[in-house]
Amino acid sequence: MTENQKNGDGKFQRTPMREQDPAVRSRNFLEVPYGYSEEEAVREAKRCIQCKKPLCVEGCPVNVKIPEFLKLISEGRFAEAAAKIKETNALPAICGRVCPQEDQCEKRCILGKKGAPICIGNLERFAADWERQHGKIRIPEIKPPNGKRVAIVGSGPAGLTCAGELVKEGFDVTVFEALHEAGGVLTYGIPEFRLPKEIVKQEVSYLEKLGVKIEKNSVIGKTINVDELLGEENFDAVFIGSGAGLPSFMNIKGENLIGVYSANEYLTRSNLMKAYLEDSPTPIMRGRNVVTVGGGNVAMDAARTALRLGAEKSIIVYRRSEQEMPAREAEIHHAKQEGIIFNYLCNPVEILDDSNGFVQAVRCIRMELGEPDSSGRRRPIPVQGSEFDIPCDVVIIAIGNSPNPLISMSTPDIKISKRGTIEADEKDGRTSKKFVYAGGDIVTGAATVILAMGAGKVAARSIMEDLLVPVDQQKFS
Predict the structure, then answer these.
(1) In which region does residue 170 sit, left (phi positive, over 0), alpha (psi from -120 to 50) or beta (all else)?
(2) Matching CATH topology for 149-245+402-473 and 249-399?
(3) How is the chain split into domains, by residue range?
(4) Three-state DSSP class for 431?
(5) In the CATH scheme, what is the code of domain 3-133?
(6) Model's pTM, two decimal places?
(7) Containing H/E element for 69?
(8) How do residues 109-160 score in pLDDT, each as one tens digit?
(9) How far apart are CA 362 and CA 378, in angstroms?
(10) 155-177 confidence digits (pLDDT tens)
């Protein structure tokens, strides 16, 4: 025990999670943090003061019973802690790794007023990993079949959460996934070193054990549409959680050159198609000098992936300053540790070629910050005459995604916003079409995993309400 702990100061000091050395991990795809040992987990969980009014729970989009599972960990009751989390969160091993706890549950932790908040995310990950590694996975009680069938479009975090909530209540649930692997953005978007795909597979497997059916290679809006699901396929309700997988581009000269990728394609090739393996049938350009445009988590993922694919230099180009970057602080920190080069306050205006159709450089212009825009961040303004070139052979555009229009085009009576998102009440997930619900990125645009999960949970409650109550009491507008 340290002197600080003897004096009581240890309650305000976090237990750090051990990680791979940056110089080593930047050249492999193994997960960066090692996870807690049992001793580390117990020590960190004992820091919780068990507030009478736990604000951390209010900060969680899926309302995990945080003090309760922390107390169980502190007592060494790890399997029970995992079961407690799963009462409200079907994907704890995923959430513990990729949720922005620093802006949600941990931000509300009372210990943060005098020191460091509890490492809630690390402990959630620990409990889920311990349960899996020790073969202690418990299947909760499933209610008898209620005769109602629900189709879920998309097997990302929103769809999986909605499915998990419904199947426990006796619904017959089928998830339709367009790709050949389940998981949505968890599988194709987030790199192995942040979220191992084996973890995603095992979380999906858990839902299948609960009774969720998953049909892969099923493109809703093409192979079958929403009306057909509600019609001849005899589903009583449809939840749309198909995400936002349509990449945005800058519309500058040179974006069609060989060596230019959207982050969506670049990460999908690496994560889903395993392009980083020597014998992968889906190749990817392994640039020596790679420029990634953007400042969010996806940009960090792409830039760090480029290093692991052999880049000598991996460079972030972002039009605002570091203070405005939307990426998680932890992701920026890890990127810096690994040697990612950050070019702030500059923006590409053209991608230059080598006269053979290949990328040779990115021409950028310096920016300065003006007054805040609609996002609340200061608007970047070009500095005339400040153009400069960054030599590179691969460019990755990571400036955001929007929903694929396939479902909206094939479902003409569902309201769509000007941004191409489905209009749904975020309080209940109901859309303009009766018995059709939506949530996650398809409604909000690209956001976080945990917010999508929260939306899936909200929609599940509405589906239960609408399908299990008398017709004259249903809450459709």
Answers:
(1) left
(2) yes
(3) 3-133, 149-245+402-473, 249-399
(4) strand
(5) 1.10.1060.10
(6) 0.93
(7) helix 66-74
(8) 999 998 999 999 999 999 999 999 999 998 889 999 999 999 999 999 999 9
(9) 24
(10) 999 999 999 999 999 999 999 99
Q: Are 263 and 247 in contact (CB under 8 A)?
A: yes
Dump the DSSP string for 313-356: EEEEE-SS-GGG--S-HHHHHHHHHTT-EEE-SEEEEEEEE-SS
CA–CA separation, 228 and 381 (whole Å): 49
Angle subtended at Cα 298 by Cα 178 and Cα 320, rounded to the nearest 5 degrees? 145
**Which positions ≥6 away from 92 have C-beta within 8 Å?**
64, 82, 85, 86, 124, 125, 127, 128
Topology of domain 149-245+402-473 in CATH is FAD/NAD(P)-binding domain (3.50.50)
Give the other-Cβ count within 10 Å of 313's Cβ.
17
- 249-399: CATH architecture: 3-Layer(bba) Sandwich (3.50)
The single-letter code of the amino acid at 42 is V
Q: Summarize the chain as % helix, strand, coil (round to 5).
A: 35, 20, 45
CA distances in angstroms from 197 to 82, 99, 142, 450, listed in the order given = 20, 16, 27, 18
Q: How far is CA 37 from the centre of its chain?
A: 25
